[in-house]
Design a protein that fits this description.
- This protein has 341 residues and is an alpha+beta fold.
- The protein folds into 2 domains: 126 residues, HemS/ChuS/ChuX like domains (Heme iron utilization protein-like fold); 162 residues, HemS/ChuS/ChuX like domains (Heme iron utilization protein-like fold, 3-Layer(aba) Sandwich), CATH 3.40.1570.
- It is 27% helix and 33% strand.
- It contains 10 helices and 18 strands.
- It has a 9-stranded antiparallel β-sheet with strand order 1-7-8-9-2-3-15-14-13.
- Strand 5 and strand 6 form a beta hairpin.
- The longest helix has 14 residues.
- The radius of gyration is 21 Å and the shape is globular.
- The termini are far apart.
Length: 341
């Protein structure tokens, strides 16, 4: 049995031997969750938080200019800015600023920590299985006094209570496309008035997202290569075309809307390295990329859907747009030309 002390020692040794390994990857190699690794430092560089995390998030705007980080196994999405217009309806929340743009699903926010490591202060939140759902890092211009006041307000009374994670049951994918009424699904696809209807469409026909794309109406979904995907980004950067990049954990969808400029490949990572926005994408873990075209009352909306080996959505990418406004022709041109290249 792994004790808190033995895990702490193993983690210290691992960090010495593997100083560049990200904590999420280290947790996998050590056979534990990231939250359990973070918790080994409680009383030193980590303080456990408690209370209603919805109320805590309403206090985050006081921190000023910060960096929001949301990731899954394949993509890391980092966006700098100020948390603005934080609101909740029951367990669903929104952060609607021009820079920090989030959709929050609070049933997945189980553990919270204030972390001060390597001169970086942050607030980190984890699911019941110890998987990170969202992190907020202070920047050089953040309000340190507001940060400390927030931490004290939500500080757990008892810092010695063990962090006990509970794994979710493994997903069993029993959906088979053979039983789907393809004609009915395609008719419903063509009748969409809003891209958000797609989630309901998949539920109605009992389909996973990628399965839905595989049986889409002709001309409305096609697979492309990683090279064509890179071309989309390169052309968007060259033409200074604003795009939207959605990345999610179980408890948060984080959206970047704006330009991408500095594109850098480093081994298996494809990166956007701009002052306000960083993206780190493991291209070797992408199983498929689809161009999708969904009808709306404002015309066709063109997107890129990225999937991993298990069929999980890695990221969704669109041209910048708002409901009620037709999609930019320039975005459609970029996607078409990148595919043809």
């Amino acid at each position: 049995m792994i004790t808190a002390q033995s895990l702490k020692e193993r983690w210290a040794t691992f960090k010495q031997e593997n100083p560049k390994t990200r904590i999420r990857d280290a947790a996998k190699q050590l056979g534990v969750s990231e939250a359990e690794l973070v918790a080994t430092q409680i009383g030193e560089t980590v303080r456990r938080l408690e209370g209603d995390f919805r109320e805590l998030l309403k206090d985050v705007p006081a921190l000023g200019y910060v960096m929001a980080l949301t990731r899954n196994d394949t993509i890391v999405h980092e966006r700098k800015g100020v948390y603005e217009n934080v609101s909740f309806t029951n367990q669903t929340g929104l952060v609607l600023g021009p820079d920090i743009d989030l959709r929050l699903f609070m049933s997945h926010w189980h553990f919270g920590f204030a972390v001060a490591e390597n001169d970086r202060k942050s607030l980190q939140f984890f699911d019941q299985d110890g998987l990170a759902v969202h992190k907020i890092y202070l920047t050089d211009t953040s309000d340190l006094e507001a940060y400390e006041a927030l931490v004290q307000k939500y500080l757990a009374t008892d810092q010695t209570v063990p962090v006990i994670t509970v794994p979710y049951p493994e997903k069993t994918k029993e959906i088979t496309a053979e039983r789907v009424d393809v004609q009915a699904f395609q008719a419903d696809w063509l009748a969409m008035q809003d891209t958000h209807e797609f989630f309901g469409l998949l539920r109605k026909h009992n389909l996973e997202r990628e399965q839905g794309l595989q049986i889409a109406p002709k001309g409305h979904a096609e697979q492309i290569s990683v090279e064509q995907f890179r071309k989309v980004f390169e052309m968007a950067a060259q033409r200074e075309l604003p795009i939207m990049i959605f990345a999610s954990s179980p408890g948060c969808i984080q959206i970047h809307t704006g330009l991408v400029r500095k594109l850098v490949s480093m081994g298996s990572w494809y990166n956007v390295l701009d002052p306000e926005f960083n993206m780190h994408l493991r291209v070797d873990q992408i199983n498929s990329i689809w161009v999708t075209r969904k009808p709306t009352k404002d015309g066709i909306v063109t997107g890129l859907d990225l999937f991993d080996q298990e069929g999980n959505t890695i990221a969704l990418i669109f041209g910048k747009r708002k409901p009620g406004v037709p999609e930019m022709k320039e975005w459609q041109d970029v996607v078409r030309e990148a595919i043809a290249a």
